[in-house]
Design brief:
By secondary structure, this protein is α+β, with helices and mostly antiparallel strands. The chain is built from 20 helices and 31 strands. The chain has a 7-stranded mixed sheet with strand order 3-6-1-13-10-11-12, with helices on both faces. A 6-stranded mixed sheet has the order 4-8-16-15-14-9, with helices on both faces. Strand 11, helix 7 and strand 12 form a beta-alpha-beta unit. Helix 15 packs parallel to helix 16.
Length: 769
């Protein structure tokens, strides 16, 4: 990579954020806008006998009240976004915009009230009466698969929604004959996304043009446009979607939600702008949840710690329907369950159940954190069983570099990897031998100090195609129009660096536009660590096309052959004659003014879509050192060191920010967060008083490092780094806490390892003693 690529430039976006010039959906000035409040179910499972909206309709300022009877037939079912070919079995429905006949989770919308102010809308919503008949509920996926479990969808024979299975080798025989077998039941608990900005959507209808403008806090503007057009029966060209600044998403803003359709539907029906912004409680209850997967695992190994076979039975919680991309996530867990390791035989079965809870869907890492947590806990258990250091048992099982590209026992194709090198670099940076000696001294003094390792590999770069058009204006300035729509990643800086590097111009000459379907012709959006490896590579491809066009224009101006013209520091010169040169501005003016030979189509515009050549597999190793207070159970992180490998880094400062954010979320899962429902289906963690996201004092200073293993599947060798730290950190911290508790005889404890859970485990060991 060249020029400014690889430099830690500060984000171009930040001055606008810091001076409050940037706007989110809730900040948009919409003159005369109506406000929507949704009436939501207080029950996890109930029959709806009657909805009475008469009093609400007469309330002050109310412009309309609608229920499922008014909208569902026109807007139709919202299906999952994954094709059925991804599964061995798939059963069940998507969701309707408003519940009708039955509710299936606490927070499901049953009516929408529209009024001139948010206060009037809320007052009127309180007047809507719903006659519910509560029914039995089930919230645990394993319980839901029992034959006598309450049925989420009575027309289905069971609560099974998805099944997927793969097997290579005679796993049953190997397990029966192996000298060492370790077993565990592990849980990756339900998480809530808690983006800084709750979901929101606004819409305005232009009656003369029969066109809609929709503003949404979304990761996928073009996909939202296409769905609004489909469900409202409007030509896509008549729908404009704008994603202004989006305050975080973490995957939860990929999905199509009822509000995304109902707000524009109401704007068209009422001929007034309409807006809705979720309260924090609404957002926690009715925005997709993540994880909620259980695995029953058995690992067969030799006495020297080499893995012979893996058996994994994975159970995922779908929530109330086939929601968005949620059904594929436990399958991704199954596809990545062998981790960094050369596992010769594997049997993996994934079953996903409907429950009376909010739907699960993508949350940072989406299936890969679950897989990494499961296999990394098993590696530590194996190390304990065979008497090896956890680092050594990993070294003995890593896929060797010479075997790449590598196909796992479940058929996943890794592109490149140097797993032992990343771990070795981590151990050197952390001073591993010294840390173990420090741990022994602490234990001798009666302190509960533990060290946890985790090595991970993830998949990223979903959806092969992406758009990043490159246009050079007559002043030489460059515009990039990308279909990757950021929600905090810094695309305006990183994409500008890539294009500036390819065109040899200053970064501030490059403007990156995104998030507006009127400006950007198409796009897949931002999720799954795909932006640089998909949208960025589209920008590289098109920048190189523009560069070649410009070189031909420069050759004409210099009266030289194009192959003899060299681009350097925004100047084109004849090779070997640096003084014989023209600048980008002169070249751009010539191209735009037509000062080129007839028939030479040199517009300095490139609009070729990028099509990728397969998924990408970043990897790395993490180390956590923790101390557990035996009197309170609180685990305090003493030191945290990471070495991640996502290929060459475009902007180290942005990459470090992604790592820091990912670590906060992964550590949060390990120690604090749990989107728990009680047996009646009430969301116990329904507010930020009850759902414990990490605070600044929960996190240590992070020591981050990188190794660089290019991917053969991208032009610059880049992979993705947006989710890596979340994937590596949860097992590293969990392993560290369990290592700290090992002298007390605590062998297994489910995450989150909260102070209360750890304290109870310590008390249990004391009672046994």
């Amino acid at each position: 990579m060249s020029g400014v690529v690889g430099q830690p430039l500060k984000r171009k976006e930040d001055p606008g954020f810091l001076t409050a010039r940037e706007r989110y959906v809730a900040d948009l000035p919409l003159t005369g806008a109506l406000h929507v409040v949704f009436v939501r179910s207080p029950h996890a499972h109930a029959e709806i006998r009657r909805i009475d909206t008469a009093a609400a309709g007469r309330a002050s300022g109310v412009a309309g009240v609608v229920t499922g009877a008014d909208v569902n037939a026109e807007l139709r079912e919202i299906p999952m976004i994954i094709g059925p070919e991804a599964f061995d079995e798939v059963h069940g429905p998507g969701r309707m915009p408003l519940a009708a006949g039955r509710v299936r989770y606490v927070g499901e919308p049953v009516a929408a009230v529209v009024a001139d102010t948010a206060y009037h809308a809320q007052d009127a919503a309180d007047l809507v009466t719903v006659d519910y008949v509560p029914l039995p509920a089930v919230t645990d996926a394993e319980d839901a698969l029992a034959p006598d479990a309450p049925r989420v969808h009575p027309d289905l024979p069971s609560n099974l929604g998805v099944r997927w299975a793969r097997e290579k080798g005679d796993v049953a025989r190997i397990l029966g004959e192996a000298p060492v077998v370790v077993e565990a039941r592990l849980r990756s608990q339900r998480l809530l996304a808690v983006a800084m900005e709750p979901r929101g959507v606004a819409a305005a209808y232009d009656e003369a043009a029969e066109a809609l403008t929709v503003w949404g806090s979304t990761q996928t503007p073009h996909w939202l446009r296409d769905n609004v057009a489909k469900h409202l029966a409007i030509e896509p060209a008549r729908v404009r979607v704008v994603a202004p600044r989006v305050g975080g998403g973490f995957g939860a803003k990929i999905a199509l939600y009822p509000e995304d359709l109902l707000v524009p539907w109401l704007a068209r029906r009422l001929r007034r702008p309409v807006r809705w912004t979720a309260s924090r409680r609404e957002d926690l209850a009715a925005t997709s949840h993540g994880r909620d997967v259980v695995a029953h695992l058995r690992v067969a190994a030799s006495r020297d710690g080499r893995i012979l076979a893996l058996d994994a039975r994975i159970v995922g919680n779908l929530g109330f329907c086939l929601f968005s991309d949620g059904p594929i996530l436990p399958v991704l867990c199954g596809q990545m369950i062998t981790g960094c390791y050369d596992v010769p035989a594997a049997r993996v079965e994934v079953r996903c159940a409907f429950t009376h809870t909010m739907g699960t869907a993508a949350y940072r890492g989406a299936g890969r954190p679950e897989a990494a947590y499961f296999i990394e806990r098993m590696l530590d258990r194996l190390a304990t069983r065979v008497g090896l250091d956890p680092a050594e048992v990993r070294r003995r099982n890593f896929v060797p570099p010479a075997q790449f590209p590598y196909e796992t026992a479940v058929g996943t194709s890794y592109d490149s990897g140097q797993y032992a090198h990343a771990l070795g670099t981590l151990l050197d940076r952390a001073g591993y031998a010294a840390r173990r000696a420090e741990q022994e001294r602490a234990r001798s003094a009666g302190r509960l100090v533990g060290i946890g390792l985790a090595s991970y590999v993830e998949m990223c770069g979903f959806v092969d195609e992406e758009t990043s058009d490159v246009i050079v204006g007559p002043d030489g300035r460059v515009t990039v129009e990308t279909g990757c729509s950021p929600h905090g990643q810094g695309h305006e800086t990183s994409f500008a660096q890539i294009v500036a590097g390819e065109l040899s111009v200053p970064v501030d000459w490059v403007t990156v536009l995104h998030g507006d379907t009127r400006i950007v012709r198409k796009g897949q959006g931002t999720y799954g660590s795909r932006s640089i490896s998909r949208g960025g590579m589209a920008a590289v491809l098109n920048a190189r096309h523009v560069r070649e066009q410009a070189r031909r224009v420069a050759a004409h101006l210099l009266e030289a052959r194009a192959e003899d013209v060299v681009l350097d520091a925004a100047r084109f010169h004849v090779r070997g004659v640096p003084d014989r040169a023209v600048g980008w501005v002169e070249v751009a003016r010539a191209a735009h003014s037509g000062r080129v030979p007839a028939g030479m189509d040199l517009t300095l515009v490139a609009r070729e879509d990028f099509v990728a050549q397969g998924l990408l597999y970043p990897f790395g190793s993490h180390l956590a050192m923790v101390e557990v207070d035996p009197d309170t159970g609180r685990a305090r992180i003493l030191r945290y060191v990471t070495v991640d490998d996502s290929g060459p880094i475009v902007n180290p400062l942005l990459a470090a920010g992604q790592v820091h954010g990912g670590l906060a979320q992964g550590i949060g899962q390990a120690l604090l967060e749990w989107g728990r429902y009680d047996d009646a289906g009430q969301l116990v963690a329904g507010s930020l008083m009850d759902y414990a996201v990490p605070r600044a004092d929960d996190l240590p200073p992070f020591e981050t490092g990188h190794t660089e293993t290019p991917s053969p599947r991208t032009a610059l060798g880049v992979k993705g780094i947006g989710e890596s730290a979340t994937i590596g950190s949860t097992p590293a911290v969990a392993n560290a806490v369990l290592d700290a508790l090992a002298p007390l005889g605590v062998e297994e404890l489910d995450i989150p390892l909260t102070a209360d859970a750890v304290w109870r485990a310590i008390q249990a060991t004391r009672r046994r003693a």
